[in-house]
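Record format v2
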Amino acid sequence: MTEREQRARATMFSFTLIKKDSTTGSRLGRLVTAHGEVETPAFMPVGTLGSVKALSPRDLEEIGCRMILANTYHLYLRPGVEVIRDLGGLHRFMGWRGSILTDSGGYQVFSLGALRKITEEGVHFQSHLDGSSHFLTPERVVQIQEDLGSDIAMVLDECIPHPAEREYVKLSTQRTVRWAERSLRARKRSDQALFGIIQGGMYEDLRAECVREMIPLPFDGFAVGGLGVGEDEATLRSIGTFTAGLLPEERPRYLMGVGRPEDLIAAALSGFDLFDCVLPTRNARTGTLFTSRGKINIKRAEFSNDPRPVDESCDCYCCRHFSRAYLRHLYHAGEILAAQLHTIHNVHFYHHLMDKIRQLIRENRSGEALDIVL
Amino acid sequence: MTEREQRARATMFSFTLIKKDSTTGSRLGRLVTAHGEVETPAFMPVGTLGSVKALSPRDLEEIGCRMILANTYHLYLRPGVEVIRDLGGLHRFMGWRGSILTDSGGYQVFSLGALRKITEEGVHFQSHLDGSSHFLTPERVVQIQEDLGSDIAMVLDECIPHPAEREYVKLSTQRTVRWAERSLRARKRSDQALFGIIQGGMYEDLRAECVREMIPLPFDGFAVGGLGVGEDEATLRSIGTFTAGLLPEERPRYLMGVGRPEDLIAAALSGFDLFDCVLPTRNARTGTLFTSRGKINIKRAEFSNDPRPVDESCDCYCCRHFSRAYLRHLYHAGEILAAQLHTIHNVHFYHHLMDKIRQLIRENRSGEALDIVL
């Protein structure tokens, strides 16, 4: 296949760059998949096991989410990809009408440490659930995601730990590029986009080398991986901004797994379009709630009589109906409803933050986004 | 106050007997509170701590629930009645627009066993949460429920364990009647109904004696307590039917805490109007789901590939959107969404069961209700 033919495979997928804010590197885009449109920059809530924890699909729809992320590694192990495929794919399985991006499982597999072994062919690992042995190759990972039927699939990569020796980073990144080429050759579905992943650790020249080798490949978009893995904030920002600046303008850019509100703002200003992170959902379950005046910990005694909503400027279901005092009570009583309401609020907060960023880009005022988070 | 004046206290409360099905003892009624109408026979989901576990108020509204139960004992201990009162009462606290019945805490306190001591004046007990000492009297229990602002309050009674010696049952029941009289004298709110509770253990003559002493009292309704405490099913049925038959027709009858589907049907046919039980919500969280073809345990391997909804004849949110395979996956993965969806289904099942019973009564066919549950 020619590159043009390759790119044309994802017939249901397109990305349109609507405008750039010349005062920063930020951009406004529209991503179209077989399951609808997504305005970018956009944040994808994480639905690890086919459920964004504590939210129903209609909660997500009400918040306005149009795309979520699901984890290939977790779904592959449980309930198993055949189960999901035979039930009509992941969208139908989880009752979600919007778009889905599946990661490749690379991050999860490589986080297993001693439980995995990498070869040129692929990665051997043992399940964190039952210790069973598995072998994943770039080809198999594409096939799994095609069976899941996500709208955007990711190639298998190695998420390099930090710190890492330059020589290892170089060899690993080169292998990730070879795996990316194998992934493209393994594609069969025409209704699924495939994104390449840029690695290169904290070395700008290795990031640049990876980009040079990847951009000629007919990927539908590019992700930047291997950030948010323990490096300091300045390094995260500088490597992120540097790498985004090298990526082709006409294809979407996804910064993987990085997701404090201030990170999303900085990354959007650098020209990233897509984000995911477990932070809003995980924090919700431990009672840490995002507000326009900073985070609050709903567990604290100061909220025991507080009649105010979590955030007086928020119009989510939680803030429209419930007081901090009630939420604190639910949390301390161990009520499941606490997790539900807190998650609705935090995911709404993230969604609304992206709304604000897009509006500022639209008005060529994206630099002001830095003032959103206190 | 005269009896008439006493009864007029609950100005926002009325019960209208709409029709009786002469083929059984069943009746159709309409209960009106300051928070709306409830068609009876009706089932009240249990919201122990101010939350029907795993459901939001809008889930309950969507199902069609008009009245829930909340537990005075639990709310008194946590978050404390002053917190709820100062935040505008229980309805506002929990964001619930429908009606609320609060129990008196009698059942919970008497379940504490060695942690409580009964005197004529009231009951001393230690909190199951922190061991702190408390003393509740009939008067205090009325005041607590008035502070909570429920639509229907219950008097403090002793829920007699089973088996129990006749002499103890007699003395305890007589004390419950004296406490009932004290409860009536303690009332201050005019917008809250107060129900008396019939005790008498498994002795028909003691039940009859209790009823004789209670029905002259100006209660807005009567509950039958002390059933479903370990007696066999035949005894539950016979004491329930016997006692219901002695109660005045024009006031609502509430069978406390008894709630398998077959129990609700039998009790409705005996002329009971209100029910509550933790069964649908608790079973939901352990994966036991009610269907028109009997209960299923969603954990079982047989459902791992099952594309069908829990109940093909059910139109709840869970059954409209999700397969047994997905629900089983969520359950085994420990996803919070499993509890949410299962609870929506089970509470909907109970609500729909009561719908069917009311329809059969309307058509003088209530005897056929015995065929509903397989």
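Chain A has a mean pLDDT of 95.
Residues 336-362 of chain A form the longest helix (27 residues).
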